[in-house]
Write the structure tokens for this entry.
Amino acid sequence: MSSAVVMIQREVADRITASPGGKDYGPLSVILQAMCQVDVVGTLSPECFWPRPKVASAVLRLVRRANPLTDDPHGLSQLLQRLFQKRRKQLGAILGRDRALPAGIDPQARPESLTPEQFIELARGWG
């Protein structure tokens, strides 16, 4: 698949397109943004459907990156699950203070503050 246009629940779209630091940012955001360019095409209110759902919808365009940010999405996913289970704890507390983190990643940072690129760098050294 090189691209897809999907209509999903607005709350899920918010999680996919979330930026670091927000409450919606998590493993789904990081994985999809690492593998695809994600754009919101539009939103649809419940009134656009019959029967009317209780939630709004969003249309996303996902275009597979020619060069994904990671060549190991499974390993990245495993690390993300581990880190986001304790999203409010510091990285050093989750991963162990005795292990050196890649340059530019503060052991006192919380998972929700890292960019997808920082997670990928962390996953590379974590193996």
